[in-house]
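WARN retry 2 of 3 for item q-0093 after timeout on previous attempt; input resubmitted unchanged.
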Amino acid sequence: MSSDNSLKGWILGILGTVIAAVLIFVIEQKLVHPMPSPKPRDAIIHVSGQVLDASKHVLENVHVTVRVATYDKSQPTDSLGRYNLSVENVNPELSGSIKWEAAGFKTVTYNETLQEMSSRDSVVLDALGPAPPGGLGATSGGVVIHPAVAQYVKRPDFARLVVPVHH
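OK item q-0093 returned
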């Protein structure tokens, strides 16, 4: 009978030691190596704003391009000088570039994070030559200079740049 009790005690001792070791390992893994938080892969970043000349007139038909990794999307500005591009399936901290190009104006390019791109309201382009008579109207390169608007309103339509998700 005493050999039965000592055998049970021996088995229970081994089981207890194994269970304790496994629990310690699992707890240590959770505390020392926390699970990384998932990246916001489904984030949609809106890069929008308005393009002006040095006199604060709005510029229509300025070619705006957002580039992220090897993907890019372009959109011309509307008659209020507005652009609105959405970049989808990316981390907002990812860097890229945004470029504004217009015939008769200096090209402007910024390399920055998508979050920084999304916080800009306007950009000013400097003319390479004289403005049309009166400072308004169409330029030889197809850019149209309009009077400044009283209040900026975000463009309702947008061009989508969907970055494929790699698994």
